[in-house]
């Protein structure tokens, strides 16, 4: 916790920053707060906007807290998460041609791949909504780490403040508000984190001093290739797998494809951010390992590596500047949280509700229904976070358990024409059942961790095998491209 005399400085700065972000969202979304535009922004976003919102979202909680925490614990192991994120974005480039179909959600895309079958859309819609709730929870959990370190209050209150923070600008302006706010927050994230990395390395005594500190702690492997000597090869592969499948299976990133002005804009944005994320991964590692060396040098201790960035901001830069950059860290979690929140609402209103009721929500009621759905989604995510602590553990365990089945389904549908709707169900259900077993049966989860480094690898393999076997055992899909597209649009309108 900070010296109490500096807490008002942080709270004041945080309130002013959030008011600014909400203002940007409100005024930037004028003319696009009603109807379907509340959810899509008109699907006409420029390269600059898509690049920035994609960057703010992918950096997010996993990079700003989890990866820095891994750098704190495992040196260059802090770059592993960024590597997985970069690979995931690079793989998504192969899905960019779907922009020409004018889809709104990932569930529509999946329905198209699998013969236009409504059953795929229904199951995917439900899974996508659950996945977005999981991701929102991750960002709430991450943001609370900053507040908890600064304020020293109950984590539950910190989580409530966080969820209200990023929920505010989504509520007032929808998707466009998220994108415009992301532009501001992306600039703050890049500037703030880079400044800390540049300052941190010499304050830690230079690279050799950091290496000596890790060696003295019995972790010389932390300074080797991706810190594998400390992190462990199997654990590193498992994290990369869970991160890649997380990117492939999360609707938020695909929303950037659907809302880009055209394919060219989407392709350039994803390629650019993939390269940037690869380079950015080393920035987070440097901050984390420097934080560890400085902590040891000063004789301090941290409860968790998740507090490494907060420690750096408040102990390296001094109170005023440090607290400003804590706000930048909060921006990383809130930008991702806002993006996942609007994606979750879009899926609920355009996929889940029409599938259940057989009717589309009237255009004039979209904005109101979206805001109600937003409050419900944030409330559910908040409750989930009350039972979860560590950020990277959350990503590896929860995300690594639930997303591989969905990611495999999208890959098979995109690249294998023999894939059938029954195969899609087999991939999703087998991966999900395996993931639920990992989450609910501790002895099984421990065995999976010791054997595979986490659930992502076995879950992916099981989902892939199930999808291929069941597809080969069931009739080929015969619908033409036009028929599949027509089926998707009919389902969007709630037509039986």
Quick take:
By secondary structure, the chain is an all-alpha fold.
Task: Describe the secondary-structure layout.
Blueprint (H helix, E strand, L loop, with lengths): L6 H22 L8 H4 L6 H28 L5 H13 L13 H8 L4 H34 L3 H49 L3 H10 L11 H4 L1 H17 L1 H8 L4 H36 L9 H8 L3 H39 L8 H20 L5 H12 L1 H12 L5 H20 L1 H11 L3 H17 L8 H12 L4
Helix pairs in contact: 1-7, 1-14, 3-4, 3-6, 3-7, 3-12, 3-14, 4-10, 4-12, 5-6, 5-21, 6-7, 6-14, 6-15, 6-16, 6-18, 7-12, 7-14, 7-15, 8-12, 10-16, 10-17, 12-13, 13-14, 14-15, 16-18, 17-18, 17-20, 18-19, 18-20
Give the key terms.
single chain, Sodium/glucose cotransporter, 77% helix, 496 residues, mainly alpha
Would you mind describing this structure in some detail?
The protein is mainly α and 496 residues long. It has one domain (4-388): Sodium/glucose cotransporter (Up-down Bundle), CATH 1.20.1730. It is 77% helix and 0% strand. It contains 21 helices and no strands. Helix 17 (404-415) packs antiparallel against helix 18. The longest helix has 49 residues, at 155-203.
């Amino acid at each position: 916790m900070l010296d109490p005399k500096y807490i008002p400085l942080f709270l004041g700065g945080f309130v002013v920053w959030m008011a600014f972000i909400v203002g940007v969202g409100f005024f930037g979304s004028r003319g696009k707060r009603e109807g379907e535009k509340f959810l899509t922004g008109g699907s006409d976003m420029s390269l600059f906007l898509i690049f920035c919102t994609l960057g703010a979202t992918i950096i997010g909680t996993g990079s700003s807290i989890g990866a820095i925490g891994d750098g704190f614990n495992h040196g260059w192991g802090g770059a592993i998460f960024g590597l997985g994120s970069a690979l995931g974005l690079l793989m998504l480039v192969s899905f960019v041609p779907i922009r020409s179909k004018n889809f709104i959600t990932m569930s529509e895309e999946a329905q198209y791949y699998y013969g236009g079958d409504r059953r795929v859309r229904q199951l995917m819609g439900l899974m996508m909504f659950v996945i977005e709730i999981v991701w929102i929870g991750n960002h709430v959990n991450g943001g609370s780490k900053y507040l908890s370190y600064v304020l020293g209050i109950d984590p539950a209150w910190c989580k409530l403040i966080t969820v209200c923070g990023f929920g505010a600008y989504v509520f007032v302006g929808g998707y466009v508000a998220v994108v415009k706010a992301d532009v501001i927050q992306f600039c703050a994230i890049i500037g703030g984190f880079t400044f800390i990395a540049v300052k941190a390395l010499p304050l830690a005594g230079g690279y050799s001093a950091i290496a000596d500190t890790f060696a003295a702690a019995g972790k010389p492997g932390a300074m080797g290739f991706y810190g594998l000597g400390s992190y462990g090869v199997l654990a590193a592969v498992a994290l990369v797998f869970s991160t890649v499948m997380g990117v492939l299976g999360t609707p938020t990133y695909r929303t950037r494809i659907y809302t880009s002005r055209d394919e060219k804009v989407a392709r350039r944005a994803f390629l650019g951010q993939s390269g940037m994320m690869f380079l950015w991964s080393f920035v987070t590692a440097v901050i984390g390992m420097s934080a560890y060396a400085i902590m040891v040098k000063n004789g301090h201790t941290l409860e968790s590596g998740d507090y490494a960035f907060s420690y750096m901001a408040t102990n390296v830069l001094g109170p005023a500047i440090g607290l400003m950059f804590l706000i930048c860290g909060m921006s990383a979690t809130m930008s991702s949280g806002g993006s996942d929140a609007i994606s979750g609402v879009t899926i609920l209103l355009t996929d889940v509700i029409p599938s259940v009721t057989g009717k589309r929500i009237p255009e004039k009621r979209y904005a109101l229904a979206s805001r109600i759905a937003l409050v419900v989604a944030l409330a559910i995510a908040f409750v989930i976070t009350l039972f979860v602590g560590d950020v990277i553990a959350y990503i590896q365990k929860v995300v690594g358990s639930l997303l591989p089945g969905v990611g495999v389904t999208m890959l098979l549908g995109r690249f294998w024409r023999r894939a059938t709707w029954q195969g899609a169900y087999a991939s999703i259900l087998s991966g999900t059942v395996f993931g639920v077993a990992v989450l609910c049966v501790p002895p099984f989860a421990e065995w999976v961790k010791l054997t595979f480094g986490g659930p992502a690898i076995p879950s992916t393999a099981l989902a892939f095998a199930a999808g291929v076997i069941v597809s080969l055992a069931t009739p080929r899909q015969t619908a033409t491209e036009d028929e599949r597209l027509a089926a998707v649009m009919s389902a969007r309108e709630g037509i039986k």
